Amino acid sequence: xxxxxxxxxxxxxxxxxxxxxxxxxxxxxxxxxxxxxxxxxxxxxxxxxxxxxxxxxxxxxxxxxxxxxxxxxxxxxxxxxxxxxxxxxxxxxxxxxxxxxxxxxxxxxxxxxxxxxxxxxxxxxxxxxxxxxxxxxxxxxxxxxxxxxxxxxxxxxxxxxxxxxxxxxxxxxxxxxxxxxxxxxxxxxxxxxxxxxxxxxxxxxxxxxxxxxxxxxxxxxxxxxxxxxxxxxxxxxxxxxxxxxxxxxxxxxxxxxxxxxxxxxxxxxxxxxxxxxxxxxxxxxxxxxxxxxxxxxxxxxxxxxxxxxxxxxxxxxxxxxxxxxxxxxxxxx
Amino acid sequence: xxxxxxxxxxxxxxxxxxxxxxxxxxxxxxxxxxxxxxxxxxxxxxxxxxxxxxxxxxxxxxxxxxxxxxxxxxxxxxxxxxxxxxxxxxxxxxxxxxxxxxxxxxxxxxxxxxxxxxxxxxxxxxxxxxxxxxxxxxxxxxxxxxxxxxxxxxxxxxxxxxxxxxxxxxxxxxxxxxxxxxxxxxxxxxxxxxxxxxxxxxxxxxxxxxxxxxxxx
Lengths: 333, 217
Fold this sequence. Notes:
The complex is a heterodimer.
Chain A lengths: L2 E14 L2 E14 L3 E5 L6 H7 L8 E6 L2 E2 L5 H8 L2 E5 L10 H11 L4 H14 L15 H13 L5 E5 L7 H18 L2 E6 L2 H7 L2 E6 L2 E7 H6 L4 H7 L14 E6 L8 H9 L4 E10 L2 E9 L4 H13 L3 E4 L3
Parallel strand pairs in A: 3-8, 3-9, 6-7, 7-8
Antiparallel strand pairs in A: 1-2, 1-4, 4-5, 9-10, 11-13, 11-14, 12-13
Helix pairs in contact in A: 3-4, 3-5, 4-5
Chain B lengths: L2 H39 L8 H16 L2 H7 L1 H8 L5 H25 L3 H9 L4 H34 L7 H12 L3 H29 L3
Helix pairs in contact in B: 1-2, 1-5, 1-7, 1-8, 2-5, 4-5, 5-7, 6-7, 7-9, 8-9
């Protein structure tokens, strides 16, 4: 599949009162056509800067940002404006013009590309129907809820039929239920129109719910990149582990036995392993932490357990789990 | 109060209205673009330009810091050159306009500064040029604040117009000065003052109403 974006050794350094700050360090990645690509990191990790290099709201200090093979840095202002018509963006703060009605807001993007008035109106109405806000077309943004405002912003962004939609913390100001609805809408648009979507977020749940691939940004570095289910079931970098297993609420020195992490994937999540273990082997394990999450509709789970202190008993338990198809890794203390 | 004074006051109201209207209009014709330039050329804005911003800012600050009475006197030769006379209502419009321009410019600049930078970022991301962004995003979003500032400016011009009476401008200010001050006719003085207060209040009230009608947030 064709690459929409290709970032090669991207650096971004700010100078503030003579003090240098490097927001992006040697970022190289590719974003493929039609995928939903997540960029996740703690706040201040540089992800907002990274997404702004994708439409040149931020200039890179060095390195290359290619959009369909064109280096954005070399575009003249008029060419850049032209390219930006195919790169739409939505924001955490929605950024609607409050003094204009919903439909006028949607029409703005079309006006910029020079679409005639009648056509503009028709297209805007069409977009409002897609986001389910046709009945609010003459309202002013102040009368809308956060979720509705974001829908208007999405309609405005997609009206110009862009190739990519950049989402900068687009659901961070919304409650979980509304976040879910907005994500469903984005997923639907991605599937129906084959639209490439780049999502910046600090929320794991957003990435789990709709992203195909994810990049983890930590302190300006690209810590890890890959398929969401791969990264989430088997995180390799420290930053990824910190995000996937946020805090381990157990005290590693509490017990005497070895501590292991069991990871389930969808296929075994309906088997009662712990109960079976007790029934079949008579050994007990101490559950220190457990959770499950749904990645792309498949249930994934992980459990951190303390094994019996006796070495051979522990080996029997590990053997039992591995036979059942779970992945067992020892947790370093 | 004799009939001829009553007639003079009626004419005065009309002249004050004329001066305020035209001086406000002309000062916005010049001051609005100046305010937009001050805003857009300042640091971090769309058309950042230190030289332009500094020069215009300097001129605005100098004109604004001159007491209006001094400006009136200083501008007499310019007024005479422009309208052929330095006394009368038409002549008073010239210094009133010049005096109001810097006030308008700063007021416009401060209204535009209130606009959420996110809206500018959104416009830029949609491929809008800086000038397009200013005309179609920033100014509409700042409209309620611009209208409110407008009411304050018109009221200021009205107050200044009373001062123009000192150098022979017409209007209620001249009447207050001639009959009320020089001839000790206290009733005329208080009547004109009351009329000026009422006019300022009406303008203010009207401005607030229009601004409220426009404010959608």
